[in-house]
Amino acid sequence: MKSLRWIVPLALGATALGVPAAHAAPRKECPRLDSGLSWYGDNRAKLQQFLCAGHRGRVALFDWDNTVVKNDVGDATTYWLLRNDKVLQPARQDWRTTSRFLTGEAAAALKAACGTSVRPGRPLPTSTDTACADEILSVYGSAKTTGGAAAFAGWNHRRTEPSYAWAAQLLAGHTPGEVRRFAAAARAENLKAPVDAVQTVGSHQVTGWVRYYDQQRDLIRKLRRAGLDVWIVSASAQPVVQVWARGAGVRPDHVIGIENTRRAGRLTARLTGCGGDPDAITYIDGKRCAVNRRVLGVPERRAYEQAPAWRRQAFAAGDSDTDVTFVSDATDLRLVLNRNKAELMCRGYFNADGKWLVNPMFLQPKGRKSTRYPCSTTAYTAPDGTPGPVRENGRIVPDQADTVFSP
User: Fold this and answer.
1) What are 220-276's pLDDT values in tens digits?
2) Is residue 402 part of a domain?
3) Mean model confidence pLDDT for the chain
4) Cα torsion for 129, 238, 317, 305, to the nearest 10°?
5) Is the pLDDT of residue 24 over 90?
6) Could you tell me which residues belong to the region Disordered (predicted)?
7) How many helices (H) and strands (E) does the chain have?
8) Does residue 212 contact residue 362 with C-beta atoms inside 8 Å?
C-alpha cells in the first residue's frame, strides 16, 4: 500500500477539516435498503439508521463465504480444480513442499495415492484418479487422511487454518490470471446449478451450488452510496474471491484474501504472511492483521494490536469464528449471520455495548441450537488450540442461549 502513515489520512476516516468522519454531521438524505428484502426483527431499521448516520469516508468490512454468499467459493474452486485436472504435482514429488504444517503421515498418504509417475509441475489426473482426488479432498475437507491420521500439526490457531491455506497453496504453479479463469468457470457452474445440487469429486458427493445473498448485495450497494469504503476480507484465495466480489459490486483491489507469493509470474506454495508471521493468513487474528495493514495503514510491528477507535472500521459483518476479531473491532455496528459458531455467537448474543446485530442466514437458515453456547468454558480457542472461556473487557461471558433463528 502506498504512502500510508500512522496518522489520519483523508481517504481513511477524516473530513477535509481533519475531523474524524465518525463525528461528521448526519446527512439529510441517505440511501434506503430495499423494502422487499427480508431482515430479522428490527435489523433493517438499525442498519438503515447506520446508513443515515453520517459515516462518509469510514470503512465497512465483510467476510465473504457464507456472509455475502451462501456456501463457500474456496470449496467450489477446489472441487473444480480436482474435477478438471488443475492440481499440479508438487516440487520433488514431495507434498511437504505444499505446506510446512502437513504431517509426515499426510505427505506419505498423498504420495501413495497420487503416485510419482507425473512429473513435478504437471497436472495430476484427479478427474479420473479417484484415489488421488479422494486423498486431496480428505486432507482439505477434514484435515485428516483417508486413513484417519491428522493432516496438519503445529500451527497458531488464531492466525491460520492450515487446510484453508492449503487450498490456496494447491494453486501453486498457475498464474493469477489462470486462477481467475478457473474461479470464473467454477462460479458459472455453481450459480447455474439448482439449490441443493451436488457434484462428484473423486468418489464423494459434495456441494455443487452457490448463491449471492440479495440482502447483502443490497447492503453493500447502499453502504457505498452512503460514502463508506467497502472491503472484503476472506479466508479463501484472493484471486478467487476477486472474481466473485465483482458480482457484489466490490472492486478486485478492495478484496483481501489468502495471498501466495509469486515466482516468474506464477503462484508459489509460500504465502505472504502478515505482521512478521510468514504463516499467517486471513483467519481470526490474521484478519485483523490484514485489515490493519491493507486498509487502515497500521505499521507492520503493530498489526496484531487493536487500532484506536477513531481509525477502525465503522461496520463489519461475518458468520464464523474466523471473523470474530475483525468484526469485534468495528466501532459502530456489527452484523452476525447465525451459523452456530460458538465464539462469534457468544460475543454477538452477549452484546456488551449494544452494537451487535444477529440475523439468521438468508438461505436455508439453521434451526435453534438446543443447548447454550459454552461461552464460560470452551468457546474460545487459544493460539495453541486449547479451548477456554470467552472474555469481554476482562469478564468471562456467561453461556448464551440461541435466540435468533428461523423456525
Assistant:
1) 999 999 999 999 999 999 999 999 999 999 999 999 999 999 999 999 999 999 999
2) no
3) 93
4) 120
5) no
6) 379-407
7) 11, 16
8) no
- Whether pTM > 0.85 for this model: the answer is yes
CA 332 to CA 347: how far, in whole Å?
A: 15
Please, which residues have CB within 8 angstroms of residue 320's CB and are 6 or more apart in sequence? 63, 66, 339, 341, 344
CA distance linking residue 342 with residue 4, whole number of Å? 36
What string of DSSP letters covers 135-192?
HHHHHHHHSB-TTS-B-B-S--TTT--HHHHHHHHTTTTS-HHHHHHHHHHHHHHHHH
Helix (H) / strand (E) element for 268: namely: strand 266-271
Q: Examine residue 120 and state whether it is found in any structural domain, yes or no.
A: yes
Whether 220 and 363 map to the same domain: the answer is yes
Cα–Cα distance for residue pair 38/40, rounded to 1 Å = 7
Residue 133 and residue 183 in one domain: yes
User: Of 16 and 129, which is predicted with more confidence?
Assistant: 129
Model confidence band, residue 11 (pLDDT cutoffs 50, 70, 90): very low
Task: List the domain range (segments joined by +) for residue 227.
Answer: 10-71+211-396
Taking the C-alpha atoms of residue 371 and residue 287, their distance in angstroms, rounded to an integer, is 29
Would you tell me how many other CB atoms lie within 10 Å of the CB of residue 348? Answer: 25
Same-domain status, 101 and 120:
yes
Question: What sign for the dihedral angle of Cα 136, 137, 142, 147?
Answer: negative
Q: In this structure, are 267 and 302 located in the same domain?
A: yes
* Distant-in-sequence, close-in-space partners of 394: CB < 8 Å, separation ≥ 6: none
In this prediction, residue 407 carries a pLDDT of 75
Backbone dihedral angles phi then psi of residue 378, each to the nearest 5 degrees: -135, 10
Element (H, E) at 81: helix 73-83
